[in-house]
Amino acid sequence: MIYDPTVPAVLDGINLSVAEGSIHGIIGRSGAGKSTLVRCLNGLVKPTSGRVVVSGEEITGLDVAALRAARRRIGMIFQHFSLLSSRTADGNVALPLEIAGFPKTEINRRVPELLDLVGLSTKADAYPAELSGGQKQRIGIARALALKPDVLLSDEATSALDPETTEQILDLLQDINRSMGLTIVLITHEMDVVRRIAGHVTVIEAGRIIESGPTFDVFAFPETATAKSFLSSIVAHELPPEVTRTLLATATEATDPVLRIIFTGEAAHAPVLSDLVTRFGIRPNILHGRVDYIGGKPLGILTIVAGAIGDKLSAVTAHLSTLGLHCEVIGHAVRSVSASAHRASA
Questions:
Q1: According to the CATH classification, is domain 23-231 in 3.30.200.20?
Q2: The CATH fold of domain 241-345
Q3: What pLDDT is recorded for position 30?
């Protein structure tokens, strides 16, 4: 691979650590550098500088033979399955064992175990053309596990599948992670995939890491505008553009503050809004909100116009903080004529 110093690097300053036995999602838009990163992890691409360490071994400095041996500990599943059409299911699973020089007796023992692991023991003699997309991906997973890797890399492995099949594949990967203690790195642009099974997530933009941490924390409290926008399909951080255009950046006598309240844990189901009405007499107008589940933990985000809040904004935010909730002012909404009249009469 030839690198042109006049062309911006595909990856720049990447510093990433994946915990052993974890499921770690790496997300980003098309062209962000995700696929290049995964190719660095399995040694298909050698970075111009820096180190790549997998299972305690630096693979960037290995010769061809040593790198080939190191790759046996790194399984890979692909978006489009990459099965050999001329081989049956058991033949595809057996392929890496054959290439590695395993004896026939060991292959005959190992392949049925792997097919059973992915729930396809009855499809051993079926060819790829006779299998559904989900079944093909299960064969791809079994093949990736054939050499008992320490790390499993998944490069957009569910993006070609329908939602129901995607759920089944994610359940399988989660079961494999739990039962085998296998480290799984998910390269994806699908937020639902990360939300469902990844304990940690890294967000990449233009070849750089812009955020990284526990999935719940990154989804609940994204620090960059890019991450907020990227996660908006899953978590309601962004208001609809039609609403955003009507908000002002600074307060006036004719505006009310727009509050984004983030509910986590048990507070996600608490009657916080009615508490604010009773305690502070605000007249809320709900702009946006929903409750999502990130890794099985509830996360609620509610955006309201806090009408009739007056000079009680500090008291409201302090009260929400005592409840373990995060609150921020994200803009100011011009008060409607009816609301202004009601406020004046009050």
A1: no
A2: Alpha-Beta Plaits (3.30.70)
A3: 82
